[in-house]
Amino acid sequence: MTIRWGIIGPGSIANNFADGLAQSKSGKLVAVAGRDAARRQAFAEKYGLSVQHDTYAGLMADPGVDAVYISTPHPWHAELSIAALRAGKHVLCEKPAGMNAAEVVAISEVAAQEGRFFMEAFMYRCHPQIARVLEIIASGEIGTPRHIRTQFGFNAPYREGSRLYEMALGGGGILDVGGYPVSLARLIAGAAEGKGFANPSVVRGHGVLAETGVDAVAHGILGFASGFVAEIAVAVARNMDNSATITGDKGTLVIADPWVPGRNVGPSTTSITVTVGGVSRSEVLGDERMLFAFEAEAVSATIAAGGLQGVHPAPTHADSIGNNETLDRWRAEVGYRTFAETPATNRKTPGVLPKGLPQIPKAELAGVGAVSKLIIGCDNRNTVAEGALVWDAFMEAGGNAFDTGFVYGGGLHEKVLGDWIKARGVAREVVVIAKGAHTPYCNPESIGAQLEISLDRLGLDFAPVYIMHRDNPQVPVGEFIDALNVLRAQGRIGIFGGSNWTPRRMAEANTYAAKHGLQGMSILNNNLSLAVMEKPVWAGCVTSNTPDMLSFLRRGEVAHLSWSSQARGYFLPEELRNRLPADTAPETCFGSERNAERRRRAEALAVEKGVSAHNIATAWVLSQLFPSFALIGPRSPGEIVSTLAGAALQLSEAEVLWLNLEGER
C-alpha cells in the first residue's frame, strides 16, 4: 500500500519533505495546497504535481489524498492538524505541533477520536543514528547516563517581517528549534531509566528577548527525578556548537550532528564518538538518502500498517505533549509570552469537539436563572491560551457556569478566567461562581475584602453566586449571614451559600436569616459523589453522601453543587484511576468495600445503558431528587467529551437509590 500525501504550506521545509518522499517506498506526493498562487505553482512544477488546491479545505476534502503534511508557520499547526484529522486524513505536522502543550493534547485527542495517525515531525528522531545511540546506552558501554549538553543555534540577523522574529508568527528560538534539544534530553533521560522518555521535574531558564518580544537566545537547565541533568540552549541570533554530549558514569558519547545530517540532499552520513577510560572510538553511519527520507518512510509505513502514532524512537502523542509542556515552562522562565497567552487574545481553535455531541442540560437555579448542570472548575489553567481551549469547548457544548476561588493559583486563575471573559465578551452570558473565606481567613471581616479583589481579577462588578469556601464553627452563623447580606445589598453578589458546611450549620444560618428578614443560604457546595468520601481530600472537607445530609437535601431547601463529583476518577477503568498524588488518589480517599460495591453496580448499569461507569457516576449526581449540579475539572476538550454522555443520561429514582445502596431496583 502506498500512502498518498498532500502538503499544506509549500515552504522550504516542505521541499525537504517532498524530497524525502521521493526516496520513500511507502509514500508518494500527489497534491499541494497554498494561498500564494505563484509559490504553489512553482512547487507543483518542481515536483510534477497535477493536483493543486488554492484552499487548505480543498486538499483536506480531496479523496485522492490519504495523509497531510503541515508546514505552515507555527500558529496554524494545531488548527490545520485538527481540521485535517476531522476530514479523515492522517497528519504529520511540523514542530511545534501547537503553540502550547494544551493544543498538542487537543490534537492527540482528536486523532484518537477519528482513528487517524498523528505525529509531530521531528525528522532527526527517525534517522538511524538516534536508534544507534539508544542501543549503545542500553548496552551499558558508557554506564548510566547522568548528563547531556546539547544546543541548536544559528545566527539569522533581524529582518522586519521574518517569521523567526515575528510574535504573530510564533517566532523565537524556543518555538522554532527548542523542541530538538528538549526532546533529545528527554529521550536520553528516559533511556537512563529504561523508558521511552522522561519529563523533567525542574525547568530553569534565562535568555535574551529580541525587540519584538520573542526569544533571540535561550539557555535552560532540566532536572529529572532520577538525578539526570540536561544543559540546553537555542538561538536564532547566535551560532552555537550544534552537537550533543551525553555523559554516563563510565564514559561519554558525542553526536557530532544530531539535528540535520543531509538535510537538503544525501548522503546523510554522520558520526558518533564513544570515549571510555580515555580511549575513544568512532562510528560512522552512512546512508545515501537525505534526512527527511527516513521520516517520510517511517510515517508512511506506519500508516500503511494501520498504526496511529509514531514508533519509538519517533515521538508518540505522550512524548510530544511532554515536550511541549517543557517548552511552555522554558518560555515562561525566559519571559516569552506568545500572542495567544496575552490577556486580549481572541485566538480560537475550532474542531476540538466532534460534531453531534449532546448538549449539557440546564436547570433553573432560583435567583440566578438557567445554569448548566455541569459547572466547570477553573483552578487548573495558568494562561489564557490554555484556558480558552477548554472554556471555548465547554460553552460550545452548552456550558455556561464557571467555578473559581480567591485562593486558586494564588489569584492567577481568577485573573486568567477574567481575561478570557473579557476577550470573548461573554460577561453577560456566563454564570461565575466566586468563592472566598478559605481557612485561615474564614471570618466575616475577610469576605468583603476578598470579594473586592476577586471581582477585580475577574473584571466583573457582580458575582451571581458566592460561596464561602469553608465554615468556621467558632464564628456565630449570624455574623456570616449579616456580612453576606451587606454585600448583596451593595449589588456585589446574588445568591450565596457555603462549601464544606454541615446540615446543622446551614439550618442555623437560615433560621437566623428568616428571623431577621434576611436572605439565607440557598446553595451547598460539598463533595457529593456516588462514592462516599472516606478520607477527606483536603482538611476540613465534608461529604454530602450521608443519610443525614441526603435527608436534609431531599427536603429541597437548598440546591447542591458538588465538587469532585466523579470521586477523583474512582469510576474510571483501573489503568486510569491513579494518576493523582498518592495522598489524594481515588483509592486513598474513596476506597472501601461499600464503594467498591457501588462501582460494581455502576459498571453493571453502564453495560445496560451503553455508557461508562464514569458516566453513570456523573448521571447519579445530576439525577438527584433535589436541585443538583456537578462541578467538573476537565483539563482538555477530550475530557469534556468523555463526560457529556453522563450529563445527558437521566437515571430513575429507583436506579439512584440502588446505586447508592439505599434500595433495590
**Share in helix:** 25-40%
Mind summarizing the main beta sheet? Answer: 8 strands, mixed
- Basic shape: elongated
- Count of individual helical segments: 22
Oligomer: single chain
How much β-strand is present in the residues?
Answer: 15-25%
- Strands, count: 24
User: Which class best fits the helix and strand makeup?
Assistant: alpha/beta
> Any low-confidence stretches, pLDDT <50, length ≥5?
none
Distance between the first and last residues' Cα:
54 Å
Rg, alpha carbons: 28 Å
Walk across the major sheet and give the strand order: 8-9-10-7-11-12-13-14
Mean pLDDT: 97
Describe this structure in words.
By secondary structure, the chain is an alpha/beta fold. Helix content is 36%, strand content 20%. It has 22 helices and 24 strands. Strands 8-9-10-7-11-12-13-14 form an 8-stranded mixed sheet. The chain has an 8-stranded parallel beta barrel with strand order 17-18-19-20-21-22-23-24. Helix 1 crosses helix 9.
